[in-house]
Amino acid sequence: MNVQVSLNTPAKKAPPAPAPLLSLRNLVIAKAGRRLVDGVSLEIAAGRTLAVIGESGSGKSLTALALLGLLPEGLDIDEATRIAVDGRELGPRDERGWRALRGRRIAMVFQDPMACLNPFMRVGDQIDEALRRAGIASRTERRQRTAERLAEVELPAPETLARRYPHELSGGQQQRVMIAMALAGAPDLLIADEPTSALDASVQAEIVALLARLQARRGLALLIITHDLSVAGALAHEVAVMQRGRVVEAGPAAEVLVRPRDPYTARLVGARRRLDEVAPHRPDAGGVIVEAEGLCVDYAARRLFGAPHRAVHEAALSLVPGRTVGLLGESGSGKSTLAAALAGLRPLSAGRVRLLGHEVVPGGRPLPRTLRRQCQMVFQNPYGALNPRLTIGWALAEPLALMGVPAREREARIALALKEVGLEHEHAARFPHQLSGGQRQRACIARALLCEPRVLICDEVISALDMSVKVQILDLLRRLQQERGFAMLFVGHDIEAVRWIADEVLVMNRGRIVERCAADALDEAHVRDPYTQRLLASRLLPRAA
Amino acid sequence: MAAVTLSRAFPRLLARLLPVGLALARMAAQAVGIVVIVFLLARLIPGDAVDVKGLEGDLTAAQQSELRHQLGLDRPVAEQMAAWSWRALHGNFGDSIRFGRPVSGMLATAVPETLLFTGLSFAFGLLLAAGVAVGAVTTGNPVLRGLVNFFNVWSVALPTFCVGVVGILVFSIWLNWLPVFGSLVLPVIIIGIDSAGLIVKPLYEELAEAATSAHVRTARAKGLPGWRVTLRHLLPTAVPVTLALSGLVLTSLVAGTITMEVLFGLPGIGSLMLNAIHGRDYPVIQATIVVVAVALVAMNAATDLLHRLIDPRMSS
């Protein structure tokens, strides 16, 4: 069996064979009778890139795992499923057969590289292990090849880096190590399951560019699993769009992503396009209600006698009723800390915040209750922000009780709030786990609205949501602001979303606000700051056909 | 040049050693605290060694007060403690009040016995727990999974002294396989199973979770054989938990060994301590407690340091 595999390996140099490298027909995966993947068929030809696009729960990751025989226990695969590599069929649970292919013909890169690398092993040793598995017996040769692979994924100082542990690398470096490890056995097909989802935007663009270069240089076949249309557009020749376990549309990327035929695909593509339309600049309404000057926030030192870590340096910003300030930044830029400090949820180390007429200074009086109510926050993870043991109705009744609204009036107010955020009255009786992610976020927004806030701070509120839901929530926030006229601070890392909803955009990097401009001027022609320019340049462009 | 690198390396070395030094200082403080509390507690119990001797040997009141003065028992407690501590620091734990022999000599015979006993029990328990947990996770065998729960319930539900008595009844009296006193076999098995029961369940849960973790899946995706995935990628994940649990188990072994030593007549620290408490033999009580306290603190320090050594994330 191994002989046949190694005979087939040099196929890269030959012109693309007529038989597809990998073909999957009628994949059906069920759990307890419920079909998670329902009749998916895919084909990947040598040297081509196929992107499988889908939102959470579409079954795209299970499909990828099935292509390497890695499906977890407890899932049933239908008898009618056929998987063939180079025209040779393999049973989905044929562990021996799959193990012969893994790493040598088919390799895989996963989401969240930090969790995927073994924390107890130096990264060089982890690549070394893959090389040994690929049949390289000499230790010196393995060491040399480890360095070569690390250089190939464009990591600096490969020899030094190989001696590091995963936690000593950045997210982007970790993912590069994962790719280097996948390439160790010179595979013909690389499956990448959401390879950039856990990474910051600028890092994401670098990884996508690296994958494109590797594919061109090595003639790899690439299977990209993603929820992000721009990643698919930047890499794929062909795409397949999955919804609820089925492929609803498949074809050339340039065709499907530009002129989608299926209504679901059209909705996905439309959602992305909506964000590209920048809203017209709105006139200033005047009357600043939140104003921060020289705002600094420190985190206590992690060690005895260590210096405190300054998360926010001298930030200044002001919020005006009816208008939105967008705060754009990558992870660790201090944007959430700044948002929490503005809401009075985190003590200041220096500077001052004037919030609705109350002065917040370091060591000063905390925000009075009545004012705190008027400054509401909505968070990234709506599941974590709702008590799992309270129904939505109970959760919404809490702020009303605090405000002293009589019990008989509460139900009507809750029903009205739910209606306003696009939920039904029946949702009040449900528990958070009985709602979808988008519905949960709507419930959180409803809860904030019940306090009749004059300031709404949204901290990454759409990050955990699927693309089509993101746009709905953005629409909702904008409509509510128009109706109610609250001032809004919208914190996010998604350039398009922040630009779409905001009137003014602030860009944060390493705790400092490095750029402030009108939302419609947030493009490479207008911004001055080099970091912002890099951020804008990292947006993905569709692959030339 | 060398001086420059040295001056640069020195703060880094200091930064690495400082946490270790602080940990050791904390542990020394713990040991001192335990000793002080025991010293005071021993004197809270009504009656002293002279009373016990008086009951046994018909000493007159005058003889008793003479003896008290001789032994320093009539001085204030603080003064007694200071004098004792000073001598203990020099390795002199004084003489047993009841037997008149040097306490250090008594310890010299008891400590090796206890070390052998606890070492064997702990090793047996750890091997049993690790074997059952790893086997249950990697094979998914229902019998092994059942054993995980069996040992766990056993150690929670059955106190070692009960099992010990039943064990003596069955194996020594009815079957006549083992002597009633002095054999290590039965106590090691009993304490070993008891320790295994404490470790096996959390270890199994940790391994079962690690088996579905992303880095184990990555190792499988690399095409590594199953044994290598288990050995290099699955097992290291469970080391921190095993260490933490081992610290816990070693602590509980102190209580376990005392009862077992008394029950099976093993001449270890536990028997020594219990006899000393019965006889109000202060020097022996104090010395044995010091030995146990220092051992406990040292074991905790050792597991902590091992964790730092094994998990690269801890040291940076």
From TrEMBL, chain A:
Signal peptide: none annotated. The keyword Nucleotide-binding applies. Keywords: ATP-binding, Nucleotide-binding, Transport. GO terms for biological process: transmembrane transport. CDD domains: ABC_NikE_OppD_transporters. InterPro entries: AAA+_ATPase, ABC_transp_ATP-bind, ABC_transporter-like_ATP-bd, ABC_transporter-like_CS, P-loop_NTPase. GO terms for molecular function: ATP binding; ATP hydrolysis activity. Gene3D superfamilies: P-loop containing nucleotide triphosphate hydrolases. It comes from the Bacteria. Residues 22-269, 295-535 form the ABC transporter domain. PANTHER family: D,D-DIPEPTIDE TRANSPORT ATP-BINDING PROTEIN DDPF-RELATED (PTHR43776:SF7), TRANSPORT ATP-BINDING PROTEIN (PTHR43776). Belongs to the ABC transporter superfamily. This is ABC transporter ATP-binding protein. It comes from Ancylobacter mangrovi.
TrEMBL record, chain B:
One of its GO terms (cellular component) is plasma membrane. PANTHER family: DIPEPTIDE TRANSPORT SYSTEM PERMEASE PROTEIN DPPB-RELATED. One of its GO terms (biological process) is transmembrane transport. PROSITE patterns: ABC_TM1. It holds the Pfam family BPD_transp_1. This is ABC transporter permease. It comes from Ancylobacter mangrovi. Residues 111-303 form the ABC transmembrane type-1 domain. Gene3D superfamilies: MetI-like.
